[in-house]
């Protein structure tokens, strides 16, 4: 790519796209079972929230900072492994609280963000608020402004 600036006073604004993409999460302040929450998110967004990085975990916890209720995410126990409801991906990143998962009572197959932000396995019929994952992503943009009064050629 070539940018050419001619002599005289010039102003050039260049927008640079950052390669990092931020997933958009939506907090639903309605109490639902895990199954109700999943159906709601699939109907209105994409699915329950999937968390695969520290950045995503932080983003969800910031979103729910003013609402520290237990919150459903899209992780569930599929007999042999923990899986994400969205695209049925295996769990590769985890933020379990101490002594979790514990499958207390033998029927804790769904995962919530506890008030402290860490994950707990719970019974899927418990009613909690919900974090959905939207299909929209945001690209970070940076604007570079160049002022000049002489000819320049910039080659990328």
Detailed description of the structure:
Helices cover 13% and strands 46% of the residues. The protein is mainly beta and 156 residues long. The strands form 2 sheets. Strands 2, 3, 4, 5, 6, 7 and 8 form a 7-stranded mixed β-sheet that branches. It has a two-stranded antiparallel ribbon with strand order 1-9. The chain starts with a strand and ends with a strand. Mean pLDDT is 80; it is low at 1-20 and 138-156.
Outline the fold blueprint.
Elements: E1 2-5, E2 10-32, H1 34-44, E3 47-48, H2 54-63, E4 71-77, E5 82-84, E6 110-113, E7 119-122, E8 128-148, E9 152-155
Parallel strand pairs: 4-8
Antiparallel strand pairs: 1-9, 2-8, 3-8, 4-5, 4-6, 6-7
What form results from the Cα inertia axes? globular
CATH class: Alpha Beta
Please, how many domains?
Answer: 1
CATH fold category name:
Mannose-Binding Protein A, Chain A
Could you name the ranges where pLDDT drops below 50 across 5 or more consecutive residues? 1-20, 138-156
pLDDT averaged residue by residue: 80
**Major beta sheet summary:** 7 strands, mixed
Give the DSSP E fraction (strand runs of 2 or more residues). over 45%
Pfam families: Lectin_C
Keywords: Disulfide bond
Domain C-type lectin: 25-133
Organism: Sinocyclocheilus rhinocerous
Summarize the structure.
Pfam families: Lectin_C. By secondary structure, the chain is mainly beta.
Please name the defining characteristics of this protein.
156 residues; mainly beta; Mannose-Binding Protein A, Chain A; seven-stranded mixed β-sheet; two-stranded antiparallel ribbon; 13% helix; disordered N terminus; disordered C terminus; C-type_lectin-like; disulfide bond
């Amino acid at each position: 790519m070539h940018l050419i600036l001619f002599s005289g006073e010039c102003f050039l604004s260049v927008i640079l796209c950052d390669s990092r993409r931020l997933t958009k999460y939506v907090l639903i302040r309605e109490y639902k079972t895990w199954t109700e929450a999943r159906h709601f998110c699939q109907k209105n967004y994409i699915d329950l929230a999937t968390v695969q990085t520290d950045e995503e975990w932080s983003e969800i916890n910031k979103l729910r900072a003013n609402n520290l209720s237990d919150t459903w995410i899209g992780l569930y126990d599929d007999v042999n492994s923990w899986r994400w409801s969205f695209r049925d991906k295996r769990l590769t990143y985890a933020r379990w609280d101490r002594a979790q998962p514990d499958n207390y009572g033998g029927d804790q197959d769904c995962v919530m963000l506890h008030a402290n932000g860490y994950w707990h396995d719970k019974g899927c019929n418990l009613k909690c608020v919900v974090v959905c994952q939207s299909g929209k992503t945001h690209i970070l943009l940076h604007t570079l402004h160049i002022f000049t009064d002489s000819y320049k050629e910039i080659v990328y």
